[in-house]
Amino acid sequence: MSKRVFPLSKVYGLLEPGPVVLVTTARDGRSNIMAMSWHMMLEFEPPLIGCVICNANYSFGLLERTGECGINISSVEIADKVVGCGNTSGLKIDKFEKFGLTPRTAQRIEAPLIEECFANLECIVVDTCMVVKYGLFVLEVIKAWVDPAVKDPRTIHHLGKGRFMFAGEMVNLKSKMR
Q: 53-89: per-residue pLDDT in tens?
């Protein structure tokens, strides 16, 4: 097998961590939505999520000030809205209105959840020790919601430079792993 050198600037596309999610934040009665693909699970229980948000991003300041957010997991049915949220700034527009998304009141946080997403996680910031250097927030999921009608959702995965992949066929390898 012959392999070629791969550009370091594209490595993230090989290790893409998971589905693109929509992060919701709110402050002073104003809500925002940010598309994010730089996240990872850190712990099972309590569920901890690490997420990277650039300090130049409008959502960075909202999350830093409020210490809470919603993580909304979308499927391919709203891919165009997810990409739209990722390509605009909430500093000047209401993304719920612009992209026709429905805010849903959360139970334990002020930030709204997104009704069109098949799963919603209410999160609080529990560790900021790597925020200044890396923009890495550690979140604890304090309430989780899932639509039981959605079976095997096809999620959206960002590969960089406008390229996306949709999750495909579900496979159970448990019986083959013995």
A: 999 999 999 999 999 999 999 999 999 999 999 999 9
Give the dihedral of Cα atoms 80, 93, 139, 65; nearest 10 deg: 170
Burial code (b: 16+ CB inside 10 Å, e: under 16) for 34-56 equals bbbbbbeeeeeeeebbbbbbeee
Q: List Cβ neighbours of 11 (8 Å cut-off, separation of 6 or more).
A: none
Amino acid at 123: C
pLDDT tens-digit profile of 119-133?
999 999 999 999 999
Residue 51: C-alpha distances to residues 38, 54, 168 (Å): 6, 10, 24
DSSP state of 7: -
Tell me which DSSP letter residue 101 carries.
Answer: P
What are the residue ranges spanned by the domains of the chain? 18-177
Give the SS3 label for residue 51: strand
Query: Residue 168: pLDDT above 80?
Result: no
Q: How much is the pTM? A: 0.91
Q: What's the CATH number for 18-177? A: 2.30.110.10
